[in-house]
Structure formats: structure tokens, C-alpha cells
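Lecture 7 notes: from sequence to structure.

We start with a single chain of 445 residues. Read the sequence below before looking at the structure.
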Amino acid sequence: MNILVLGSGGREHALAWKLHESQQTEGLFCAPGNAGIAQEAECLPIDLSKTDAIVELAKQVRAELTVVGPEAPLVAGVVDEFEKAGLGIIGPTKAAARLEGSKVFAKEFMHRHGIPTARFEVADSFEAAIMALGRFPLPVVVKADGLAAGKGVVVAQTLLEAEQAVEDFMLRKTLGSAGARVVIEECLAGEETSFIVLTDGRGILPLPLSQDHKALLDSDQGPNTGGMGAFSSDGMLSEAMHDEILRTIVAPTLAGMELEGSPYRGFLYCGLMMTLSGPKLLEYNVRLGDPETQPIFMRLRSDLLELLLAARDGQLANVDVHWSPSPAVCVVLASKGYPTKPELEKVITGYEAVEALGGVKIFHAGTRMRDHQLLTSGGRVMGVTATAEDLPAAIHRAYAGVGKLQFEGMQFRTDIGAKALRKMPKAPVPAAARGSKGDRSSSRR
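Now the structure, written as C-alpha cells:
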């Protein structure tokens, strides 16, 4: 069957890679794709903001199933348009996608359905936001209401920093209309966990747990980004805690959406903070995470297409899924200037040597080919993803791959997975993960 993947990042490359493995896949297309995806699928140019053009493209390539990577087309209602046209697609409707499209809707939804989350207030004006800040202890979180590509959240350590974030969002409109309303939120203490499930509205298939590293710099310093790396490993949470998350967060979310007339189908990402008083929900994403998808799919041993077809047909409860017990780690390489003004069109070298390593896969994000040269074309350029028998070995292998890659201004975190290592007895952090990259890591400081 013919499959269409929408998007151009590392997440979409991972999707295309796994779908390409399926014996049921005949034609594989990606719109718009990138240089890495072009090795797995036929890439087609498209403007993902135009849902009607996406529908026409799916018809042209005779796609029997379309898989949506990024959030923007989902929030814009691409699933609704596909359903009107009688075309198969994986993802939530426009109404259900409000869980990510509006932080205000999401927080008020959590409150309505008793889903544990941080205390918050919604502000519709600059003056109201400034007054709300005074009712929260520091540090405090300021969130833009709309989509902001992972850059609409500021964890402010001082009141001045919080007020600056409100001014940027609401007065200077640095995020456009996304910052017209803001959520002022209690800052929770604990460790973040990415809890992702695939659902057909009733059946729930949890994916392996993962942890994102959102801050640009080591030790979670610097501005938030779309994600600078992630790892996935068994044993991140106890079975009892896993069941509690399903019972208190995932199940009430699906029940609440159905009760409100917007049944949820597709991938649902629950960004959690594991606090001393239990798991609390920070945010929803209505799609797979990026870069969490990369290490998660490195561990997938089942046919991804079979899982997606079961979700499309409401048969998810009847499928078995197999995951590798081996952990996986993804280290994101970013352009100089990311996340504000990334420098582009830099020549990338060394990728052939990485692909020759066992257990390592490069997932492309911001890349393109020109005159037989691989160039950077985005802020996050690629994710070097490795799997091994244990987490220290997976980290070492991922950074061994990173060490073979070069482009001008390349920046990356040197501590992906280090928090987990510190919890392991007698598990030293590999030299690469302690920061032994010399001049190439200096741009992170």
C-alpha cells in the first residue's frame, strides 16, 4: 500500500525509516521531507499550512494512509479534511488537537477533568498577566497560549525575567498571535518524563518511556528549544507508577475528550513532571515527540504500519507489540545561533563514517543536498541515535557518532542521559558525555 508522511524533521525521518521496513509498504512518500528522508521515501514539495493541497497530494499519490508528523497541520484541521474526502489518516481532529493548539484550553481541560497539573491562571491582557505573576512564587512559568515550535515556554527565575517574557509575548508579539494570551503557572520540582501512547479512542498502546532534554546547554541551562536530545530505557518508572499515569492522566484525558464530543485518535504525548506528590501533567502534544521518537523507534521491533492500521481501524486492543530491551540515545546537532537565528547552508561532513558504525542511525532534520554536498537547512540539523546493551554503552556509541560529524558552528549538549547515569551504581559518565569535544563545544558556552 502507498503511505504518505507529512513533515520534514527527525521525527518524520524516523517514521519513514520504520514504515520503509514494512513488507506492506509499496510506495512511500514524504512531504516535504529532507535529505535523509529522501533515502527512505520519495520527497515531494508542499506547504503544510495548506490543508487542501495536502488532501490533493494524498489523492495524487494514492495514499491509503497518511501519517502526520508535526502539530501545525493537525491544529489546522487536516484530519477533518481527510475524513471528508474519505481518505485514511492518523491523528486527532481539529477540535481534539486543541489540547496542543491552545495551552489555555489544555489547562482548563485538565482542571475540568481532575487531571493532576500545576496551579495556573490565564491572562488575556498584559496588565492581567503582570498582576497574576505576583500571586505565584519564584521560579514561575510563563506559557504562550498558541503554537510556538517549542519556544513558547519560559521558566523565569526572577520577577524581572517573568515580566520580560510577558512583555515579549503579549506586547512585542515575538511569537505572533500565539502570545495573545498567556498561562502563568506554578513551577513544579522533579524530573520530566515523556509518556506517549497510540490510541484509537478506546484502546491504548503505551510506547516506551523517554526523556527529552529541552534546554540548549548542558545541565539544563540556556533557552528552551524544540529538544536537544532524548533517551529511552526500561526501568525509568516502576510498573505501579506506569499504571498510575495511565489511570490518572491518560484514561481521564481520553474519557474527557469523548465526553466533550471530540474523541481522540492518534498519538498523544503527555509531558509529565514526576513530583514528590506524584506525576503531574505539564502539557499535551497531539503527535509524537521530537527527538523522543528517534530513540523510541530504534527500539521498535514490530511492524509500525500494522500498528497504525490497527489504530485507524479501531483494532488497537487486538495487536501485540514488541520492543527491544536495549536502551537508545539521541543527541541532536544544532546550527550556530539556534534557537533564535540559526546560521544555515553549512557543509556537513563525516556522515558516511557514522552510518558505517554498528547500532547508530542518523535521523536528518534540517538538511538538504546541493551539488552533491549535504548542507544544513534548519536550526536542528540531525539527531545521532544509537542503541546498545545498556545505557552507558548507548551514550558512548551516540557520542562516538557525533565525534565523526562536522559543520561550521555545530553545537550539541554533552550530557544527554547523564542524569540517568548518576542514578546507576558504579556507572561512570563516558568521556564524551562529560564534554571532551574541545573547540567544537565552545559555542555552547
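The first strand starts at residue 2 and ends at 7. Keep this in mind for problem set 3.
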